[in-house]
Amino acid sequence: MSLRARVVLSIALVFVIGMSGGAGLAGWHARRSIDQELRAGLVGGQQTLHRAFEGLSRSDHPARELTQLVATFDGDRHVRAVLLSDQGRVVAASQPFGSTRAAPAWFDRFMRSDLAPVRVATPAAVRGFSAIALQSVPARWRWSVRWVSR
Questions:
Q1: Overall pTM > 0.90
Q2: Each residue of 46-59: pLDDT tens digit?
């Protein structure tokens, strides 16, 4: 192999290694950023619930207010709220932001951040309900109700 071909091959190899390393680093950073954003959404959702629960025991219609509280999460890009009865049944569920285009399956698998759902217990004074469960919902990914029954 000529010297010119070896130099060109060496430069091409360095280019491919550099591009691969850069793409891997960018993917790792993107996945970490998505995870941090979803965690922040769950923490914000928990804070919203705790603030709303403070005045709930003085309410004349706590069931209606809990349903309305869950509805405030409608259209949220990162959190889905589900009101659970004492028996663990879904009473009300928010509808997260719906996207018309889903991410490709390979991208979904690579970027998915499986955060455990968070359950916030309803105040003891409110009868008939056990908790509001919060689940992280990435904006463009599909979701299902199956996680609540576990």
A1: no
A2: 999 999 888 777 77
